[in-house]
Write a structure and sequence with these properties.
It is a single chain. The chain has a 4-stranded mixed beta sheet, with helices on one face. A 4-stranded mixed beta sheet has the order 5-8-7-6, covered by helices on one side. Strand 3 and strand 4 form a beta hairpin. By secondary structure, it is α/β, with parallel strands linked by helices. The longest helix has 12 residues. The protein has 2 helices and 8 strands.
């Protein structure tokens, strides 16, 4: 499956919207795992490689956050698709010193995520 990343956690202010957005954008498999009473941690399966997880942000008043880049085959197509799904594009695709291309999006819940296409 395309679009893998090393385990990275999303702490979201709107976990329902985040699941809908990322499921539609990348086709990831999302599996809710019960935690403490009233808490759910959603595992993110990406196929081969290490996935990650997401949860409702545990810090009251804090914004949604990601700390990772997701690999894509076509930075322009992925950036455009994210925009169509409601993302704000903070940085349009740009080349990074001949090693690849990146763009930065903010999803509909306010979480920032980088998209990365390695040079071939």
């Amino acid at each position: 499956m395309a679009n893998p990343f090393v385990h990275v956690e999303l702490n979201s202010t709107n976990i329902t919207a985040a699941k809908s957005f990322y499921g539609a954008l990348f086709g990831w498999t999302l599996q809710d795992m019960p935690m403490a009473p009233g808490q759910v941690y959603t595992m993110i399966g990406v196929g081969e490689g290490t996935g990650g997880g997401m949860q409702t942000h545990p810090v009251p008043g804090a914004g949604s956050t990601w700390l990772a880049y997701v690999g894509v085959d076509d930075i322009h197509a992925a950036t455009d698709k994210a925009r169509q799904l409601g993302a704000k594009v903070m940085r349009e695709p740009m080349e990074v010193m001949g090693s690849g291309w990146l763009s930065i999006i903010v999803d509909p819940t306010g979480a920032t995520l980088g998209l990365w296409q390695a040079s071939r």
